[in-house]
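INPUT
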Amino acid sequence: MTVAVRYFLDRRRSSVWWVLGMAAILLLSVAFYPAFKEQTSFEDFFKDLPEGAQALFGAGGEISLTSPAGYIHSQIFTQVFPLALLIFGIGLGARAIAGAEGDGTLELLLANPVTRTRVAAERFVATAVMVIGLGAIMSVLLLAFSAPFELLEAVSIPYLFGACAAATSLALLHTSIAFAVGAAAGGRARALSASTAVAVAGYILFGIVSSNVLPAARFITPWWWYLSRNIVAEGFPLESVLVPVGLSLVLGVLGIWRFRLRDLH
Amino acid sequence: MSRRARPVRRRRTLASAVIDTRGLTKFFGPVHAVEGLDLEVRRGEVFGYLGPNGAGKTTTIRLLLDFIRPTAGEARVLGGSGADPEVRRRIGYLPGDLKLDARYTSDELFSFYGALRGNVDRSYRDELVERFELDPTRKIGELSSGNRRKVGIVQAFLHKPELLVLDEPTSGLDPLLQREFQQLVHERATDGATVFLSSHVLHEVDEMADRVAILRKGRLVKLASIHQLRQQARQHIDLHFEGKANAEPFARVPEVIEAHARGNSVHLVVEGSVERVLRTAARLHAHRIVSPEADLEDVFLAFYQDDEL
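OUTPUT
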C-alpha cells in the first residue's frame, strides 16, 4: 500500500484544513437552531412553495421544519453536509489520476516498478477512504455540536448516523464518477465537469420527480435515494447506502480497467 | 536479406539486446510520431539517441516505458515489456520534461521511490545527494530548475539500474554539473549498465556515447558509431595565396562541396579525401593552409537537413 499511504501523506495538510472548515460550518449551522425554532414564518414560507421546490430544500412532508429532525434534515443534510462532501470528493476523485497525469507527476511514478492497476487501485482506495473519513469525522462533529443546541431532543442517534452515511455514500458516488472519468479518459477538467454535471442534473431531476412529474424517473437520480425521505425522522433505508456504494465500486473498477488500456497524456 | 534468414538473426541478437524494437510505430491521429523504427541497443553500451525537437525521441522513450502503446510493431526492454514492474525495477528514467511533486522534499521523493523499487542502497543515495550538492530537506517546489533537474538525475540513478533511459539529461545544468553527470554516466557504464541517452544536440552525447542513432521526422536516418561519424565529418579548409585567390579550380574537384574566394583566400568544405584539393592547392602555389578540427556538429546537422537522407 505504499502508493496509497504516500497519497494520504500528500493530502494530509489540505485534509486538516477541510476538517477545520467543516467543524466551523457545522457549528455555525447548528448554532442557529435555538433562535430558528421559535420562527414559524419559515414554515409558512416553505408551505407556499411547489412540492418539488420544497423537496429541494428538505421541507414538506409531515415533519415540522422547526423540530430538531426537520431542522437537521433541511439545514444540514440538504445543504452543507452533502455539498461539502461532494466538493471534497469530486476534487479528490478528479485529482487521483487525471490531476496527477495533467501535472506530469503520474508518469514518473509509473516509471517505478508498479503496475498501472496498482497505482490506480491504491489511489482509488485512498480517495474513497478520505471521503468516508471526512464523512465520519463530520458525523461525529455534528453529533457533538448538536447536543448543546437542543438538536438531539427526540432524535434517534442511529438514524442521524444513517443520514450521515447516506450523504457520504452520495458523495462517494460522485467521487467515483470523477475518478472513473479521469482514469478512463484523462483530463482533470473533464473529470470535474462530468461529475459536477451528474450531481447538478441529479439534483434538478430530484426536484422534478418530487413534484410527481415523471415519477418513473425517480430511481435514476442519486438524490432520490438519499433525500426522498427525512432519514433522521423516518428511519434509514439501507439502499441509500448500498446502491451508491455498489455503483462506486463498479465505476472504480471500470475506470481502472480503461486506464490500463489507454495512452497516458 | 531473405525473409527466411531474418528470424534466425533476430534470435541470436535478442539475448544481448537491452532495447529491441521492431517496426515500432506510433501515430497520434494524423501525426506520424515514430514510424517503422528498428533499434537495437546492446548491453553495456552508451547509446546516443539524437534528433531535432519533434523528431520522435520522447515518443520512442514513452513507448519503451509503456506510457503509450504502439500503433504497430513492438518494443522489448531488458528482454521483457516496459509494462512489467520487474522490468521497470531495473530501469532508471529521467524525463525530458521533468515534473516533480512540489510538496515533496527530495528526501521524501527518494524514500518513496526507494520503497517502491525496494533495492536502494542508502549509502549510494547519500553519495549521489552529496555529489550533486542537494539539500534533501528542502521542498522541491522551492528549488531552482537546475536543482530540480539534479533531483531528477539522482532519482534515476538511485537504485543502480541496469538500464538508464535519460531524456535530454543535461539541459538546464551548468557546465560543472554536466561534467559531474558525464562522470556518473561513465561510472555506471563501466559497471556494465546500458545507457540510452536522448538529445537534440550532439555535443551533449558525443563524449559519452559509443553509438548514435539519428532520428528525423519519426524515422531512423543514421545509425553509426561516433568514430564512423567523425570519419564522415566534412572538413573546412582555408587556403591563402600571395595574390588574389580564385575558387574556380577548387570547385571542379569532386570532393569539394563548397568553394568561396574572398580576397587572398579560398574557403573550402570537403567531404572525403583532401588529396586532390592539396594537389590543386600546390599547383596554384598556396602558401598557407588552415583547417579547424572536423566538426561533428556539421555531420549531424546534415542529417537534420538533407532530405534525400
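end of record. DSSP finds eleven helices and 13 strands in chain B.
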